[in-house]
Write a structure and sequence with these properties.
With 118 residues, this protein is mainly β. It contains one helix and six strands.
Length: 118
């Protein structure tokens, strides 16, 4: 399986395109002016209260991705069954300011479905 990581850093000064919509709060400790896109298969799914945490196994490195509370995800139809290890996924989110491989995910595409989180 071809694995790749597509990383796109967007500066907030570029027409404000990287600034999240006002209704979306970016947690403290994450860069609200940058968005990364990670495309890789799911390696692991764990619960890190209060969030569901998935690990994406990219070629060069693994990324830990915070998705949100499992109950809120399930209400949107994003179940742990869709996130089974080996499932290809695209995650878009804000990188951590202190952890080079941690992402607060805002949009996820899996099994042909796109989910807006938080």
């Amino acid at each position: 399986m071809h694995r790749r990581v597509t990383i796109t850093m967007l500066a907030g000064v570029l027409a404000g395109c990287a600034v999240p919509p006002p209704s979306r709060d970016v947690p403290a400790g994450f860069d609200r002016n940058a968005l990364l896109t990670i495309e890789a298969p799911v390696a692991e799914v764990t619960h890190r209260p209060p969030d569901l945490l998935i690990v994406l196994a990219a070629e060069e490195q693994s990324w830990r991705c915070l998705l949100g509370p499992p109950a809120a995800l399930a209400e949107q139809g994003l179940t742990e069954a869709l996130l089974a290890p080996g499932t290809p996924m695209v995650a878009v989110g804000h990188p951590s300011l202190t952890d080079a491989h941690l992402l607060d995910v805002t949009v996820i595409t899996v099994a042909g479905q796109t989910f807006e989180l938080h």
